[in-house]
Write a structure and sequence with these properties.
Order of helices and strands: EEHEHEEE
Helix content: 10-25%
Shape: globular
Number of helices: 2
Distance between the termini: 29 Å
Structural class: alpha+beta
Largest sheet: 6 strands, mixed
Strand content: 35-45%
Number of strands: 6
Length: about 90
């Protein structure tokens, strides 16, 4: 169905959801689970991610904003993004 990985202090390393489960809230639920793990132990005020161009709109729906234009490093295209936490 889906997988999420993160690294301290507050960065989403990867987030994938099987196509048949897109737009059903699974990514948001996994993201919220990661937040519930980090927040008690850190003073994170934002979460960052380097989104694939394909996933940018999904991250926008989860509250992320672009922090720079699309980039390519070592042949990997991504859009740097962050989500401010309350």
């Amino acid at each position: 169905m889906g997988v999420i990985a993160s690294r301290p202090p507050c960065h989403i390393s990867l987030l994938f959801v099987d196509k048949q489960f897109h737009r059903k809230g699974l990514a948001k639920a996994m993201f919220n689970e990661v937040l519930s793990y980090y927040l008690p132990f850190t003073e994170c005020t934002e979460v960052t991610v380097n989104s694939s161009p394909y996933a940018v709109e999904a991250y926008h729906r989860m509250g992320f904003a672009d922090t720079a234009a699309e980039q390519e490093v070592n042949g990997i295209r991504f859009v740097p993004m962050k989500c401010l936490l309350n």
